[in-house]
Design goal:
The protein has about 220 residues and is an alpha/beta fold. About 25% of the residues lie in helices and about 25% in strands. The structure holds cytidine-5'-triphosphate and calcium ion (CA). Its EC number is 4.1.1.36, 6.3.2.5.
Amino acid sequence: NKQLESGSKLSGKHILVTAGGTREPIDSVRFIGNRSSGKMGFAIAKAAYNQGAYVTLISGPTKLPAIPGVKTIFIQTVDDLQNAINENIKQADALVMAAAVSDYRVATVADHKLKKSEFDGTMQLQLVENPDVLANLEHPDNLKFVVGFAAESENLLANGQTKLKKKHVDMIVANDISKSDTGFDSDDNAVTLIRPELKPEVIKKQSKKLIAQRIIDIISDQL
Ligand code: CTP
Ligand code: CA
């Protein structure tokens, strides 16, 4: 019910959210991407907006409709994502990094459509590691709470704890991507919320909408 979903816990606050998957070009028509649908990040942006926040959403390509009232910046590559974050982080009270960021990019992007005739039956792409946007983030004074995600197919808790420290974040939303009825492209998710000094909070299969509302509740309590 709309009334229960909307409130003013975040009025006057600016929440920056990243969503969707980045794309790294191979040539003028091809790219390396991932299965992120953007649904989790969009749900978080919507939940923040419904609590009265000013929301900036930085999104990779998705099939999702725009969220009325939410300023959305569309990006493709990790470089674009970094630039969009740099431009908005100094106004943000909180950042939620739900985007599935490409770990690697193609070393040399071809400026034309690659032809099969350029290769002899096999083709090798050289990839170079992208910077870790979240781990290298400068935390300006205005930024009070940072949420990272962790997509894991095994050792969810241990890997989530490691990312909590390595990424210098206040919370990791650890996502078990080994199950097909939750996670990628699903309207549901199952996550564990990991925070320093607190017992991990396990959220069993649940709509992304309700999980987003829980994440936004935690953020609003900290701002
Ligand atoms: N992330 C990022 N920049 C990258 C890679 C990831 O900012 N180059 C962010 C993601 O948006 C997410 C968090 O870091 O919030 C964890 O991403 P994940 O892919 O789970 O972890 P990685 O550090 O990339 O490690 P790995 O993929 O090897 O598990
Ligand atoms: Ca990764």
